[in-house]
Predict the 3D structure of the following.
Amino acid sequence: MSFEAVLLFLMVFILVLLVCLSIANARFFKKNEHKYNALLSEYRQRGLDIDLVTHVAGYFGSLALYQKIIWFVRLHKGVRMKFTKERYVQPEAYHFVQSLPQDKMGWILTLHRRLLIQFAIMTLWFLILAAIWIFFK
């Protein structure tokens, strides 16, 4: 089997893997969507800062999974973020998210790890594609 055939097989295999991971992650989110909506509702009822991307991502369904959860992941990790040019996110927002029980926040952290793995595999796919384009042009 030639090197080109191996690369082609690898490209197709990784692409199928990416599609399967995307479907699995979307189903995982769909299974926990009621928890996300409850968390988002409680967060908004408290009047805490929420970024525009997280707000708008709600209208994109499973196409914006990462954008839906990253705000809460960053709050949970304690990443200092600016809400506006002049003001940082309220400390109460960090405290609220960091004090959530595991059953409310754990699935979001699991989904975040799964999405990072998917991104790493997609990066590998693009690197192989670049290698094919550069060396077999």
